[in-house]
Design goal:
mainly alpha; about 110 residues; single chain; elongated
């Protein structure tokens, strides 16, 4: 069980660091959280692998769940952004194009003859 735990720590940390390195498709806050958790998981896993000889270690059950949830959110956000770009919707904040009103504000188009 110990080796599986260390493997999940290191692989989950690497996956979250890779997701933190991808700039498109996620907010800055989510990238920061990916980087913090990824670094923490990887450092703790490497510590257990390289320097831990015997004694007591803390088994965090988040190691098995958190990387999976972060990966799902990462790909869901990327798919949502890709769908918004394909439909021509704005991806950022602000008013939508045209402000939801018709081009002529309900008046007849063109010059009146």
């Amino acid at each position: 069980m110990f080796n599986v735990y260390v493997l999940f720590l290191i692989l989950g940390g690497i996956a979250m660091l890779v997701m933190a390195g991808v700039k498109s498709g996620q907010t800055r806050g989510r990238r920061v959280w990916n980087a913090v958790f990824g670094a923490g998981f990887m450092v703790y896993g490497l510590y257990l692998l390289l320097f831990f000889r015997s004694g007591h270690y803390v088994l965090f059950y988040y190691v098995f769940l958190l990387p999976i949830l972060m990966i799902v959110r990462f790909f869901r956000d990327r798919a949502r952004q890709g769908a918004a770009v394909a439909q021509g919707q704005p991806t950022g904040y602000g008013q939508p194009t045209g402000y939801g009103q018709p081009t002529s504000y309900g008046q007849p188009e063109g010059p009146v003859q």
